[in-house]
Amino acid sequence: MGLFERYLSVWVGLAIVLGVILGNLMPDVFALVAAVEYAHVNLVIAVLIWVMIYPMMVQIDFAAVKDVRKSPKGLVLTLVVNWLIKPFTMALLGWLFFKVLFVEWVDPQTATEYIAGMILLGVAPCTAMVFVWSQLTKGDPNYTLVQVSVNDLIMVVAFAPICAFLLGVSDIQVPWETLLSSVFLYVVLPLVAGVLTRRKLESDGDPESLARFVGNLKPWSIVGLLATVVLLFGFQAETILNEPQNILLIAIPLLIQTYGIFFIAYYAAKKLKLSHKVAAPACMIATSNFFELAVAVAISLFGLHSGAALATVVGVLVEVPVMLSLVAFVNRHRAQFEDDTAEHTAVS
Q1: Where are the transmembrane segments (predicted)?
Q2: pTM of the complete model
């Protein structure tokens, strides 16, 4: 495991602190960056998110999808939790906390935007960070590729409709054009670029070319992640320092959602008698979020300084330490899963 993955929470924590400090020391610089946008899409954030997502998309082997029949239970678990449970529990928790429990502490407009940000997080299943969580839990890398591949295929067609439905239920008017363009920009385009790049590298006849290419891109992906975190927290620096209680209010339902979804997936994995190397990444994928996409769409729909953008940024703050705690939990309870028998062997 590389230095970045080993101390991921440290680097993200330092990026958060740096972003808040710089955002308060140089607000004009961040305002200038925020103004660089086209069609409600901040171009700087878009480039950084592409830098993060593209190396991951190159690693996706869609040819492996056809082999999922060899071990379908883990994939079914991930898909059910990601698309039939998680988005709706997130919307319910957002409504419960910001329309009922916290109604006296947050004004109605801001509360509505917080709910929107939470919904965007809930409808975006994890993609980029899945491979880190899978590696940390000793999951089967090929099966993780299958799970990510299928989730990405579903996300292309399901993300926008589910978002629109849940945002509509929450009385948030969202222009379909902006939502669909965000999916195209942050999912479809990098996905196509990754597939074409992979095909080109595999056609060269050098079996190591793909690994070398991904290895060369990896530092840029790290730079993209940390730079995005610095910018996002820099944009929200004034709010974070002036209204720290709002960060806590957003974090509470996000924490409940994350741990709650994990234990739903964990319990189901044990009932399905999955092997550890299939169950562990299945639980991690079902629990974590594609926060890069959620952040980008929140900014596109509601603006850089909106409550929705802040909620997705808090999602970044919450996710890394929480996911690391869940990685430790899964590894400590490895013996509770079935052995890696032939029936549950991951896709090879």
Answers
A1: 7-26, 32-54, 75-102, 114-133, 145-167, 179-196, 217-235, 247-269, 281-302, 308-330
A2: 0.77
